[in-house]
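Methods — Computational structure assignment.
A single polypeptide chain was analysed. Its primary sequence is given first, followed by the predicted tertiary structure written as structure tokens.
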Amino acid sequence: MTPEKNWVVYLLRCADRSLYCGITNDLEKRLDAHNLGKGARYTRSRTPVELLGTQVNMTQSEALKLEHRIKKTPANKKLTELDNGKAYPKMKNTQILHDIQKELQSVVKSFQQLAESLGNMATAVGKLVQPDSPQAPKAKRAPTRKKVVVKDGVVEKIKRIPASQIVYDIIQKSPQGIDTAGLMKATKFDQRKIHNITFRLKKLGRITTGERGVYKKL
């Protein structure tokens, strides 16, 4: 039976600027536990914590080995070790390395040819579909990051909308709630930023977490 690859190795920055590495198969629940002082003994007195990075789709055995390596790595190299967590170990057999290099070159060449073909197809489609045609697809835009203040018909100033307000507005306009993936898609923010913003909003009592990590307005 193939082991399930649903484990995550994560790296946190604690309130005292120290780093903590752990593993879990439910990242949302584990981060909430850390920030509520119910996580690892190390983080209980160092809240709030901030998510720095993750390595996903790992078996429990792979996750434990990577966690062990990261904990033995100096603090300034822990994030790099996490990012390279699934890199293959060094091989001594030079023939194997040579064969792998040839295969990679072949794959790269195939991708280049595919990209060229797709580019030609896109050009051909662009000529068929006019920009003002009702059939022309419209690209989705990320939420507006700036607000224009107009007074007496004159632009007085331009305010930058805080990231937390953008996330809150989206949650507020989602009657059924919205999860992390949905917020990432709507805002173009990464997972770490979404987690940190939703944690602050929950702490302020503006939102709550429902079933399966769905955020709703209080």
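Note: The beta strands are 7-13, 19-24, 50-58, 146-151, 154-160, 207-209, 215-217.
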